[in-house]
């Protein structure tokens, strides 16, 4: 099977980045107190949003295959890092040290089926696996019925 390419184009002014993806445009920015224009979420928050979006998309594909009654999923995701790494302290890693994922699944399926959906989704979600495969980020993920 051939590889599928994903691509974006961007232009930046100071810390504000305008991203074009297919027919969509969005901004990645910092708040005004950090020199940005607050036109969009910051890069790390955008990454967390990408994780939620990817988990949701894969969960919907997996649910269809499983004949799982999935009405929706609400995610709450928190990443924790020490900002000293971003500020140049070489002894501190610059990435998330922990990720906490809470998924509320809107379904009438059993707890066992929800866990099966979670496991299959996590195993196939590219964004989840990029973060997991670093082997440096402790990930705690809980999926339960809404």
Automatic annotation (TrEMBL):
Signal peptide: none annotated. It holds the Pfam family OsmC. This is Putative OsmC-like protein. It comes from Cytobacillus oceanisediminis.
């Amino acid at each position: 099977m051939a590889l599928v390419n994903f691509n974006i184009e961007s232009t930046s002014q100071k810390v504000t980045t305008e991203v074009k993806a297919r027919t969509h445009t969005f901004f990645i920015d910092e708040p005004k107190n950090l020199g940005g224009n607050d036109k969009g979420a910051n890069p790390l928050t955008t990454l967390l949003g990408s994780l939620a979006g990817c988990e949701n998309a894969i969960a919907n594909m997996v649910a269809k295959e499983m004949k799982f009654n999935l009405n929706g999923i609400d995610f709450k995701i928190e990443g924790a890092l020490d900002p000293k790494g971003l500020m140049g302290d070489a002894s501190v890693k610059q990435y998330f040290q922990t990720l906490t994922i809470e998924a509320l699944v809107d379904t009438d399926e059993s707890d066992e089926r929800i866990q099966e959906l979670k496991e299959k989704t996590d195993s196939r979600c590219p964004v989840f696996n990029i973060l997991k495969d670093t082997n440096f980020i402790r990930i705690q993920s809980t999926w339960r019925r809404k």
